[in-house]
Design a protein that fits this description.
This protein has 16 helices and 10 strands. By secondary structure, it is an alpha/beta fold. The chain has one domain: Aldolase class I (TIM Barrel). The strands form 2 sheets. It has an 8-stranded parallel β-sheet with strand order 3-10-9-8-7-6-5-4. A two-stranded antiparallel ribbon has the order 1-2. The radius of gyration is 20 Å and the shape is globular. The termini are far apart. The site of flavin mononucleotide (FMN) has 23 residues, from helix 2 and helix 3.
């Protein structure tokens, strides 16, 4: 039962969880989670840019009771954040996907299920008691995408996300160096990596080698090829997906105001501003830099989700102040699981929720829905008022 999970006593910060995860996981899989594109700077720049946003403390307000509940797509969640889609999560620790699904129930928040998840979309929907959103990449073979959308619709999914920022995959040096491929090829280097992390290796052997289960269960027998090109995806593809999917459609991986306008016009229900956690265009700006520009051009009512670089509850408040309606967390979840399994994940979420609530009170607010750019301290940012 998820209620019996005790928050890990080994973790006091997200940085600490990262260091613990680095010790516990085979290098190849820690690097897969932690790594970024090219020179690896953009994921740091994402968090650094969030840090640069300073908030203005407000005093002598009664902030005893604070509301963190947030509605998105007409559903009330307990917090303004959910879990970003991440493929192959069970590589971090056996049953990582299930831990995420259970935490989504415990916290009443959405969990995004990657097309390349290591648990089927059906099982994730069941375990999260309907709180799953399905994420898809659009491959050359659109039939597979349509098959997954049909499966999702049949089981009851209400939200589909299409990720559009990986038409071509940027080089990831660490994955290349470690020989990370799906399915794995085990040579002497990988063998040494597993042998020096026996707890991970034995638990993974015992639970079964993680596989991209939506592919394994595909009736069309699609094979997962991580580097497969999605280069021909274009506006016509978006039109086809929009007309095939009757539920809410989120387009993820948008950084350009010009694209955002067009995506809105094509009938998307929300946009997810994201640079894929710095795992795609190495030379892109930080995602938070793009957020207020996109908010400004779309107007204040269009639903906007944000991810990339969130490392604290304070970062969630910053993203909301910059124009996001909802925020998704990526790597910190995997650091928590890698550091101490389900207990580690619980602890990471407790840290984030605590910081979120405290930050809200210290900027003089009692309701997360009241956050806007007024809480930002620097005059420079006031220019970005929306
Ligand atoms: C290990 C890992 C796997 C990911 N897999 C996917 C995926 O399958 N689909 C997707 O849209 N984004 C994927 N992402 C990107 C995340 O959804 C999200 O955009 C990113 O992690 C946010 O940045 P952050 O980790 O710095 O918070 C992945 C990220 C990581 C770290």
């Amino acid at each position: 039962m998820s209620e019996n999970i005790k928050p890990s006593k080994k973790i006091y910060s997200i940085d600490e969880a990262r260091i613990l995860a680095k010790k516990r996981l085979p290098k190849m899989f820690f690097d897969f989670v932690d790594g970024s594109a090219g020179d690896e700077k953009l994921s740091e720049i994402n968090s650094f840019s969030l840090d640069q946003i300073r908030l203005e403390p407000k005093v002598l307000r009664n902030v005893e009771k604070r509301n963190l509940k947030k509605k998105f797509f007409e559903v009330e969640y307990n917090y303004p954040f959910g879990f970003a889609p991440m493929g192959m999560c069970n590589l971090t620790w056996p049953n990582a996907d299930k831990m995420l699904a259970k935490e989504s129930v415990y916290n009443n928040i959405p969990t995004c299920v990657s097309m390349a998840s290591t648990t089927t979309l059906e099982k994730m929907y069941e375990l999260s008691l309907g709180r799953s959103w399905l994420q898809l990449y659009i491959f050359q073979d659109e039939n597979f995408v349509m098959e997954l959308l049909e499966r999702a619709e049949k089981i009851g999914y209400q939200v589909a996300i299409i990720t559009v920022d990986v038409p071509i995959q940027f080089r990831r040096a660490k994955d290349d160096k470690n020989g990370f491929t799906v399915p794995f090829k085990i040579g002497p280097r990988q063998f040494f990596d597993f042998a020096t992390h026996p707890i991970w290796s034995l638990s993974t052997l015992f639970s079964g080698i993680p596989k991209p289960m939506n592919y394994v269960t595909s009736k069309k027998g699609n094979k997962f090829v991580r580097s497969e090109s999605r280069g021909s995806t274009d506006w016509e593809t978006l039109k086809r997906i929009r007309s095939a999917w009757k539920g809410k459609l989120v387009v993820k991986g948008v950084m350009s105001p010009e694209d955002a306008i067009k995506i809105k016009e094509e009938g998307a229900d929300a946009i997810q501003v994201s640079n894929h956690g710095g795992r795609q265009l190495e030379s892109a700006t930080s995602a938070i830099d793009a957020l207020p520009l996109i908010r400004k051009i779309l107007g204040k009512d269009f639903p906007l989700i944000f991810d990339s670089g969130i490392r604290s509850g304070g970062d969630i408040v910053r993203a909301l102040a910059f124009g996001a309606d909802y925020v998704m967390i990526g790597r910190p979840l995997m650091y928590g699981i890698g550091a101490d399994g389900a207990n580690g994940l619980r602890r990471i979420l407790d840290i984030i929720k605590g910081e979120l609530s405290t930050t809200l009170g210290l900027v003089g607010l009692t309701d997360i829905n009241k956050i806007n750019s007024d809480i930002i301290a620097e005059k420079f940012f006031k220019d970005l008022k929306y």
